[in-house]
Each structure stands twice: as structure tokens, then as C-alpha cells.
Design brief:
One of its GO terms (biological process) is proteolysis. There is one protein chain. The protein has about 550 residues and is an alpha/beta fold. The chain is about 35% helix and about 15% strand. It is built from 17 helices and 14 strands. Strands 1, 2, 3, 4, 7, 8, 9, 10, 13 and 14 form a ten-stranded mixed beta sheet that branches. The chain has a two-stranded antiparallel ribbon with strand order 5-6. Strands 11-12 form a two-stranded antiparallel sheet.
Length: about 550
């Protein structure tokens, strides 16, 4: 779901395919790897790499020393054949309880699909982050990267994973990239990588959390059930700027317009375009929610059979909530899509609002057009994050490779996403437009201790918060399971951590939620017998 800068020519040079002549010779994986190296191509390693360094960060007056590891995880199929190398960066606490098998660990991933996890890595809850502030263009280098007092390292060890084809993650040998470019293919790769990290680091007894952003929430829903089905029950899943159900995005369906209306109201409130502006954004959103699920949904459901009087009434109220004119709304058949809203809201000022974050404003070459030329909120931050990620990995963490860090797998050769999804453990057949809230619901029904936190930005126009509410509130959970689902909201956009005030509040909310999730599992444990060491026994070799 995230727009990216297009570096197609550079990306093609970064991981060129072997010649057709070499392919036709039927070489083994080892021979192909050797041939690529001899030809001077940059390739991902089959043998796992690991570069460690030390750092520290202060959280609430407490100094936290940590070990940072930049490296790769080799993904293998059921026969042990290496199929891909997934790049990761981890931060594990040193000192007391260092290496404890019971210390929580969180696996982070961005979305796309096809995005590396540089956004969460360099912007959110790692021990360092790029400093951001007002919703405006981040000025060019040098970029302000500093220690992060809002890191989650005090609550959990942190592992940031890059999807195959993105960052430094690549397929290996004769495995085609298409083997990872799909809903279920991608989930399987992450499940194998997480299992490998847990096994390699002896963390099977650690409380485990997933933290996905954007498309990463769709991945997270299916991944939670996949891991549980493979014997790895989770303590918690964080859904950050959620989109769980792509079915609503099909042309001709009205639910997407219902989902967007409260976000339009929040954006109009922020830019002071409402004729009777409520005192707070919460009030503006509450009014829009009530209208969206009531008169607005009913009107859309009537299609062309709606009467003129009802059309006028709905358009008038919609204008009061969104800042658009009733005439414009009626000409759009009461269905204002996102690009038109971005362009129309501030048309009198010749400005457009952002998609990832509608607090951002910019200008198009043509102020009379009906759709923005680009997403100003993406352009404002992309260069800073790409530069900061490359500098942090290579200079600060000391990881060296000839590969180019891809800002997106979408620019890689052969990228074409397979959107089909088959939920495990469900009687229904294959989905052509994925809805992994079904998978997450199955995981929550199977694991009564699984906590789910949905974190949402008022000004996120890429994955509107009302859409997340709709998706997650249709999981058909029983009351006991529904109590494990929680929603929080912040005055920010898709990447809520760009707002320092929102970041501080998110850290407070997450700290309390982590404590609750871990305590819920521990409080349900039976009285423990003495450990092997306490009993004076010798563990088996």
C-alpha cells in the first residue's frame, strides 16, 4: 500500500539474472551461485551472515545496553533446500536477563506488498530513529538520526525482517522470485524465517509478538494462524494502520465509501474546512461514524433507486461533515473516491492533501485536475528514510554487501503479486481478494490468551481507521475472545510514529498492553516445579 521511488535501472543492476545460456545448462544451485559470483554479480549468501555491535539507549531514566545484529536467515523448503535469504536487524537486551529464554521478542514487518521494514525500523520503536516533526518535507541530508527514548526495547527484544525481494532479501539458487510474491507464499516465507530465528537463538520459550504495518497487518493476520498451526502460539499481534480485507476495494462496492467517510471528516476538521467545526477531531469522527453506518450506508444501498429528496438530504449532511460542496457530492453520485477528495478539499487554495497522511499539503502542476499527481506525504519522507536506513546498516551496524538495498520489491524483475488466499482451517474455499481477519479470528478462537491491538491514525487515508474497525468487528468472535481485541487512535497518519507526540502516547499504550499480554499467559500457568538447575539435576546431553 505504500508508494515508492522508482529506481528500476539501478535495481536491475543490483541483482541481474543469470544468462539464458547458463540456465539451459541445468546447473545445480551451487554451480549457479558460483557462476554468479565469478561473473561479478552481487548475490545473497546461502550461509547465514551475522555482524554484531553494541549500543545503549535510555528509557525513563534507565540505561539499556543492547546487542545489535545485522544478518541473514536462510529459508529452506521441507527437503532442506535453501530457497531464499531474508535480511534482518535485531536488538537484544544485554545485562540482567540477557539471553533469557523467557524475555519477550517482537517481529516487525512493513507491508507494500514488497516493502522492506526500513519504515518501522528507522521511524518507530527501535533504539534509534530518524527525528521527524511537523507534517512537512524532511530537509535533505544530513538527516537527524538519534537514540530513541520511545523504544520498545525495555519491554521486548526487537527483530526487523525484510520481505523477499526487498532490502537485502533475495531468492537463492534456481528458486524464482515468484515463489515469494503472493499472499500465501509471502506468509510461508515469514513463518519459516521467524521459526529459523527462534530456533537459532533458542527462543522457543519466549513470549512472542508480531508487529505489522499496512499490508503487514494482512500478513500478520494469516501469519498468526500459520505460526500457531506450526506449533508457535503467540502472545500478541499489533495491527498498525490496518487493512485486513482487500475485498472491499473492488470497483462497484459501496463499503469502501462508508469506510472513508470518517477519515474525510477528520481531514476536513484538521484543515479547518468544516462550517460548524467541532471542538475536537474525536467529535468530528463520532458524528461521521454515526452518519456513515446509518443514513449514508442506507442511501448507498439503494443505488440508482434513491429518491431526489433523500439524495439532497444525504449530500447536504455529507457536505457538513467533509467540507466538500453538496453539489460536488451529488455529481459524484454520493461516492467521492479518495483521489477526488484529496484534490477537491483545498481546491480554492490550489493545494492537495496527502494520502499516507492527509495533514501534508502540496501542489500539482495542474490545479484544475481531479486527481493528485503524486502523494506529497510519501515524497516528504521517502528520501530521508532510505538514506537513514542505508547509513545505519552499513556505517553504524557495519554490515557490508555488494547488493543494493531495494526500497521496494515492486521494481525488481518479475514482481507480480498473487492475491489469492486460502485461509487455513476454514471450510470456505480460496479467496481471490484476501481477508485475513478470518485467519486471525481462527487464531484467537484457538488461543484464548492471544491479544490483538489495532493502532490507528485519524489522518491515515491509505488504510482508513473505520475500515479497520469494520474488518476486525466482523471476525464474529465470542465475547470472551472479543475482549482480547483493542483499538487505539492517534492524531497522525499512516506512519503514526512521524508525530513525536503520537509516538510518546503509543509507547505508553504499548507498554501497558505488553505487560497485560505477558501477564495473561503467566497468570494462567500452573504452579511450577523446580527447574533442572534448582533440583540439582543434570540436563540430558
Amino acid at each position: 500500500m505504500r508508494p515508492f521511488l522508482h529506481f528500476a535501472a539501478l535495481l536491475l543492476l543490483a541483482a541481474p539474472a543469470l544468462s539464458q545460456e547458463a540456465k539451459d545448462k541445468g546447473q545445480s544451485n551451487a554451480d549457479r551461485q558460483k557462476a554468479a559470483v565469478e561473473a561479478g554479480y552481487a548475490t545473497a549468501p546461502v550461509e547465514e551472515q551475522e555482524v554484531r555491535s553494541r549500543g545503549s539507549v535510555a528509557v525513563d531514566g534507565r540505561r539499556l545496553p543492547y546487542t545489535a545484529t545485522a544478518g541473514t536467515l536462510t529459508i529452506r523448503d521441507v527437503e532442506g533446500k535453501p530457497t531464499a535469504s531474508m535480511f534482518y536487524t535485531s536488538y537484544t537486551l544485554d545485562g540482567q536477563r540477557a539471553g533469557s529464554s523467557e524475555r519477550p521478542v517482537t517481529f516487525f514487518f512493513n507491508g507494500g506488498p514488497g516493502s522492506p521494514t526500513m519504515w518501522l525500523h528507522m521511524g518507530s520503536f527501535g533504539p534509534v530513529r530518524i527525528q521527524t516533526g511537523n507534517p512537512e518535507f524532511v530537509r535533505p541530508a544530513p538527516y537527524p538520526v538519534a537514540v530513541n527514548p520511545y523504544t520498545l526495547l525495555d519491554k521486548s527484544d526487537l527483530v526487523f525482517l525484510d520481505a523477499i525481494g526487498a532490502g537485502y532479501s533475495r531468492p537463492l539458487g534456481d528458486t524464482k522470485a515468484s515463489a515469494f510474491y503472493g499472499v500465501d507464499e509471502d506468509v510461508d516465507a515469514f513463518a519459516r524465517a521467524i521459526t529459523r530465528w527462534v530456533t537459532k537463538n533458542a527462543r522457543w520459550n519466549s513470549p512472542k509478538f508480531l508487529f505489522g504495518e499496512s499490508y503487514g497487518t494482512l500478513r500478520g493476520g494469516a501469519l498468526a494462524y500459520q505460526l500457531q498451526n506450526r506449533g508457535m502460539a503467540l502472545n500478541g499481534v499489533v495491527l498498525f494502520s490496518s487493512i485486513m480485507n482487500y475485498g472491499y476495494r473492488q470497483p462497484g462496492l459501496d463499503q469502501i465509501h462508508v469506510n472513508y467517510l470518517p477519515s474525510y471528516a477528520a481531514t476536513a476538521w484538521y484543515h479547518n474546512r468544516l462550517p460548524n467545526r467541532p471542538a475536537t477531531v474525536d467529535e468530528a469522527v463520532a458524528q461521521a461514524r454515526a452518519f456513515a453506518v446509518g443514513p449514508y450506508a442506507a442511501a448507498l444501498g439503494k443505488g440508482q433507486l434513491i429518491g431526489e429528496a433523500e439524495r439532497d438530504q444525504v449530500a447536504t449532511r455529507m457536505a457538513e461533515l467533509t467540507g466538500l460542496s453538496a453539489d460536488f457530492i451529488k455529481r459524484a453520485n454520493l461516492r467521492v473516491d479518495l483521489p477526488r477528495f484529496q484534490k477537491e478539499l483545498l481546491r480554492g487554495t490550489r493545494q492537495v492533501v496527502g494520502r499516507l497522511d492527509s495533514r501534508y499539503v502540496g501542489y500539482d502542476a495542474d490545479a484544475a485536475g481531479e486527481r493528485p499527481d503524486t502523494d506529497v506525504s510519501s515524497e516528504a519522507i521517502s528520501g530521508a528514510f532510505i538514506a537513514a536506513q542505508n547509513d545505519h546498516i552499513s556505517r553504524t551496524l557495519g554490515y557490508k554487501t555488494e547488493l543494493l538495498y531495494r526500497p521496494s520489491a515492486r521494481d525488481a524483475p518479475g514482481f507480480e503479486w498473487n492475491w489469492k488466499h486460502r485461509p487455513l482451517g476454514q471450510s470456505q474455499g480460496q479467496q481471490n481478494n484476501p481477508n485475513t481477519a478470518i485467519d486471525l479470528a481462527a487464531a484467537m478462537r484457538g488461543n484464548p490468551y492471544l491479544k490483538v491491538l489495532s493502532m490507528n491514525g485519524w489522518y491515515d487515508m491509505a488504510t482508513p481507521f473505520f475500515g479497520a474497525e469494520n474488518d476486525l468487528n466482523h471476525m464474529m468472535l465470542e465475547p470472551a475472545q472479543a475482549r482480547n481485541l483493542r483499538f487505539t487512535y492517534y492524531p497522525a497518519g499512516h506512519m503514526m510514529y512521524l508525530n513525536p507526540e503520537a509516538l510518546a502516547q503509543m509507547k505508553r499504550d504499548l507498554s501497558a498492553w505488553y505487560d497485560e499480554a505477558v501477564d495473561a499467559a503467566r497468570s494462567a500457568m500452573p504452579p511450577q516445579a523446580p527447574s533442572v538447575a534448582e533440583a540439582g539435576a543434570t540436563p540430558p546431553n
